[in-house]
Every structure is written in structure tokens, then in C-alpha cells.
Amino acid sequence: MTERNGSDARDRRDHIEQDGHGGPGEGMPDWEKRFRAPRVSLPDWAQDAPDRSLFVSNATGTYELYAWDRSTGEQRQVTNRPNGTTDGVLSPDGRWIWWFDDKDGDEFGVWRRQPFTGGEDELAAPGLDPSYPAGLALGRDGRTAVVGRSTDEDGTTIHLVRLGEAPVEIYRHRESAGVGDLSHDGSLIAVEHTEHGDAMHSALRVLRPDGTPVAELDDTEGGTRELGLEVLGFAPVDGDTRLLIGHQRRGRWEPLVWDVASGEQTDLALELPGDVSAEWYPDGTGLLIAHSFEARSELFRYDLATRELVRVPTPPGAVSGATARPDGSVEYLWSSAAEPPAVRSTAGGVVLDPPGMKSPGSVPVEDVWVEGPGGRIHALVQRPRGATGPLPTVFDIHGGPTWHDSDSFAAGPAAWVDHGYAVVRVNYRGSTGYGRAWTDALKHRVGLIELEDIAAVREWAIGSGLADPGRLILTGGSWGGYLTLLGLGTQPDAWSLGIAAVPVADYVTAYHDEMEALKAMDRTLLGGTPEEVPERFEASSPITYVDRVKAPVYISAGVNDPRCPIRQIENYVKRLEARGAVHEVYRYDAGHGSLVVDERIKQVRLELDFARRHLGGAQG
Fold it and tell me: CA-CA distance, 573 to 593, in Å (whole number)?
């Protein structure tokens, strides 16, 4: 189970934070050690073979998949590709590892599979052409899979794949959709879809393996679809038709149990103030609850029979993933802004402790609440130890936009702090974790709304004495990169410097070049296509304001990026060049961010150097 922070179908553009590989570390600055220190993801485990696990690690300097046999302790690298691999699924029987094979980070490819114990890769779904992935669910029989695909030509298709048989299409629609889950006995398939045209709020459909509909659930409010649903998983019991789902009926994400056979809905009605997600305990008697509120998270066990909610002890900070094991223990990936991530267990100790250099910690975050035009804005502030303002200050803007910054460890902000900067991160309207109304505020005035909130926090930072108004950096990646370029043009006197990674720069061109699922999201956000609502695309596009930009601009871009494609960035850069604006562009051979640690370190070093040359005044 992962924290709801931008990893699902509602996300516009997600941004990857890479955190390095091991090495001796002698003479290496702390900021670089944080990237090079080995990291592991929360291990996934096979339902019917719980000693077999799959995780992601950067041990070789590139993020790849690893198999882990807990009974023997053996760990084996599964994938080995120049640009890395992070998308993998372990089959319920533990025999196979499925992984997604794209080209240099372009996210367009095919599923392959490899035996858990090692061996040659093979095409996992012969007969299915390359596509963007749209979900995957594997059957317990070892021979069945439900594969979701997305292409510009077909929209979304979902296929039943059985070993030795041709794939069978069981779903097709032009709008975005995805595979939710496959029931324990393989008789039911849950699908999230947006056939109604609202890519921010999915409806649910349950199908038989032949594609016959069994049940539908589509939340509405006032005749318009403004409430989302999501699949959290079928009960892990044979013949059990209960489906755990997420809903927004009380203004935030919460779980309920839907019996798709009888139609009965069991609302948990948890009295928790923030967003709540859940997954089943392996015996189906309880739920592992993840509660996210005001940039922190916590875990609970919910007993379905007694309706008792019991806290699962975790330290203060952020839990970015958790799973309940067959013995009743809970494993979770935890960190705080001051302490690096670790995979821990309620049974005691660290589950996975990679060998090699340990990551230095950083400074804790301070919570700041600022009154803004749409309500109170939550910001997280870090400053160098012992430093007093006014300081050169970095506004590091998160991507998504359906994402949020939390009290979790991040090597990028820590690097700025090491160099003498204060760092401010803003959970602007559009961020998750503050209720549905806050997240859904991004409609039609896309980008401009977020920048209003950022401007309010900027005024607080200056007025409080934290920030030097003559040394303000606006930066971010993905949607944060988009807001950086848009902010430099619409607020040209507010910022001293801009650093945009993999940004949207020319919204119209980006729309025409991006993957189909993101086109659907843009139509939802802006109310139509560029041809239907040209004035909205123009108002929200950084290239509209490029001639107003005064601050030096640094842009980095992946040449294979399907989310923020390179052509629209080149259009923006040409406009900067035409008027002799101060700017630098760094292009690299990857997609929407790099999975290669040396490449990520190079990018951070270039960003720090650009700030030093054009802004000055920082330490380190």
C-alpha cells in the first residue's frame, strides 16, 4: 500500500526523487552522499509464497528490480538496463517477476517476465503490441493476467491473457481507464474508468473474465461527476466478492467495502481528519489503514467484525508505503525530513538494511500556515542550522499536481540547505491530503491558482524575515517545473532565478505530443481541447508570458519524456534565445527524470552551480 501522494491515475505529471548508490564516500560532500547512499523500496511479497519478495534498489548506481528469498536471505538483481527499471510485479505464486520494458524512459513498451529464481526473460503477453501501461493484475493460477494498455490510436484497452492462448480484449474506450484488481479466485476483474470524461474522478466497473459486466459504481453529486472512486483490492479469500474501494463522499478519501455480488456497501466512517487509504490483512478479517494529514502519516488496524481501530506504532514523520504480513506484523517504509528512509517492521528492527555508505540526515521541517486567496496554505520550511534571516531562499514546488510535500526525507531540498539556502515547499491548491475541495480547486485557471498560493507564502517568507527578497529561487520538477516557468512569466518581479526540470513550457504543443492519458487529464483541468478552449490554454501556458521573463532560467529535459515532451520545451527555449534572455538548457537521454544516480547528481550540481553564478551569496 502506498501513500496517496500522486502515484495513481489522477496525477498530471509525477516527479521522481532519486537517492543514489553506495560508495566509499571519503571526501564526498554530504549532499552527494545522500544521493549515493543505497536505498530500497518497500518489498512486495507473493501472496501464496510470502518468503518471496520483490523490491527496487539503487545498489549499482541505477534503480533496478531485485528478488529476495527471505527463507535463505539471498538477493538477486533481476533487471539490468542502462536507464533503469522500477515497474515490476511479483506473481501471487512467487514463481514469476513481471517487469515493464520501455525504451530509454519513454514509458512505451511491453511486459516481460523472468523466473523468480533467475533465467531468461520472455515476452509475458505475446500478441499485445507495445503501449503505455494501464494497470496489471496477475492470477493465482500462475497462467492468467489482466493487462491494461493505452495508445493514442485506441485509447484504453484491457485484455485477458492466459498462457498458451491469444489475448482476449475485454474492455475498450477512448477515455482513460485502468486495471484495478483481479479477485482471489480469478472470477472478477475490477476496472477504474473515466468514460464520463472526467479524468480526475474515476468510476468503477466489475467484469467477468469474458468481459460481461457484473456491477457498476459511479458517484455523482448534484448531477455532475465530482466525486472519485478507486480500487484498493479484492478480499484475499476464495469466493469472497468484497471489494475494498476508496471514495470521496465526505470531502476526502476514505475506504469502504463493497460486496459486488449483493451490492451491499459497508462504510467504515472513520473519524480521521485527513485522507485515508487501506489494504486487506492477509486473512481478510481486518484492514491496514494509512492516514495522511497535514504532511504526516500514521497507520492503524481496523477489525471488520468489531469495528475497532487500533493504532500501529510508527515514529512521527511520513509512511510512504506499508503492508501487512501473514504473521500479523506490518512492514512500512518510513522517513522524516531529518532522517533518511528505512524499511521497518512492527515485529522489531529494520527489514532491509542495504550495505554500504549511510546517508547523512538533514534538518527538520517547520510547519507554516499562511492565509491565502482560497484558504489556509500549509508550507514546510527548512533552514540551515543556526542560520538567521534574511536568507537566500528556494521555493521548491512539488509535481503532480495531485501530490503533496510531506515530512519525509528528500535529498534535493537537503542539498540546498547544505549550501546555505532556506527551502520552502508549498502544498498549494491542487495538492492531496487537505480534502477534496482543495485538490479539485484546479479547474480552468490551471497554474494561475497554484501561483496565487505560492505568492502568498512568498510574502510571508519575506515579511517574517526568513527570505531575502533579492535572492529568491523558484524551482520544481514536472508540474513544479511548469509552475516555475509560468511563475517567472506571470510574476517577473517576484523571482531572482528559475530552475525548471522536465517542465510543461508550451501547453498547446505539450497537449498534442503527450501520452493519451495526460490529454484526458488536460481536457478535465481546462474544460476541453486547445481547439475548444484556446483562451484557457493560452492563459495557462508559460510560453504566453515568455517575453516578460526577467530572471535567469535553467531548464533540464529528458529527450524521451512522454509526459512533458521535448518539442514544447524547445519552442520555449527558442523564444528565450530570440530575445537574448539569460538561460541555460541541459538535455539528457532519459524520460521523465533519470533513474541513474550519477546523472541525477550531475543535474543537481549543475543547478547549484547555476544559482551560484547568477545569484551568489550562498555557502558551500
Answer: 19
Q: What is the pLDDT of residue 616?
A: 79
* Secondary structure letter of residue 221 according to DSSP: B
Q: Which of 148, 150, 147 is nearest to 132 (CA)?
A: 150
Annotate 113-182 with DSSP letters as a single string: EEETT----EESSTTPPPBEEEEEEE-TTSSEEEEEEEETTTEEEEEEEETTS--EEEEEESS-EEEEEE
| Average pLDDT across the chain, whole number | 94
Distance CA 451, CA 240 (A): 47
Q: Exposed, middle or buried: residue 541 (CB in 10 Å: 0-12, 13-18, 19+)?
A: buried
Whether the CA torsion 58, 62, 65, 68 is positive or negative: it is negative
The answer to whether residues 391 and 383 touch, using CB atoms and an 8 Å cutoff, is: yes
Q: In what order do the strands lie in the sheet with 155-162?
A: 132-138, 144-151, 155-162, 168-173
Q: Angle 323-327-328 (CA atoms, 0-180°, nearest 5)?
A: 55
Residues of the chain with confidence (pLDDT) below 50 = 1-23, 620
Residue type, 509: T
Q: Over the stretch 388-438, which tens digit does the pLDDT of each residue have? A: 889 999 999 999 999 999 999 999 999 999 999 999 999 999 999 999 999
By CB neighbour count within 10 A (0-12 exposed, 13-18 middle, 19+ buried), where does 266 fall?
middle
pLDDT of residue 27: 81
